Amino acid sequence: MPDPLAEINRRIQAALALLTTEEADAIIVEPGPGYKELVQGVEAAMGLLWAAMMKGGARENNTNVGYMAKTQVVLLQMLHFAYALGVKRGKEG
Question: Which H helix or E strand runs over 79?
Fold first, then answer.
């Protein structure tokens, strides 16, 4: 039986391979209006997910906290990359 986490990790790595943090930072230079709100939206969505997990019976333990932290980091990095790609497209278009 295939490991579902392996496929999830493969997809995440493919998305994160689009840019490096340094490339994204160089494209963005200084985030424009809305960037802070996008970051806060990701953080709020993670809070909502955590609350739903706790309400659903998940336990607050190191494993669950670790997965949530890793997920938030990945989502914020993808947001940063998507923002950079949008800025790049705007400059080229």
Answer: helix 62-92
Q: Stretch 25-43: mean pLDDT, rounded?
A: 95
Helix and strand element counts for the chain (H, E): 4, 0
Using CB atoms within 10 Å of the CB of residue 19, give its burial: 0 to 12 exposed, 13 to 18 middle, 19+ buried.
buried
Residue 65 CA to residue 60 CA, distance in Å, equals 7
Mean per-residue pLDDT for 46-59?
97
Flag whether the pTM goes above 0.85.
yes
Domain limits, the chain? 4-92
Going 42 to 11 to 53 to 60, the CA torsion angle's sign is negative
Instruction: Give the mean pLDDT of the chain.
Output: 94
Q: Kindly report the CA angle at 36 between 35 and 39, in degrees rounded to 5?
A: 90
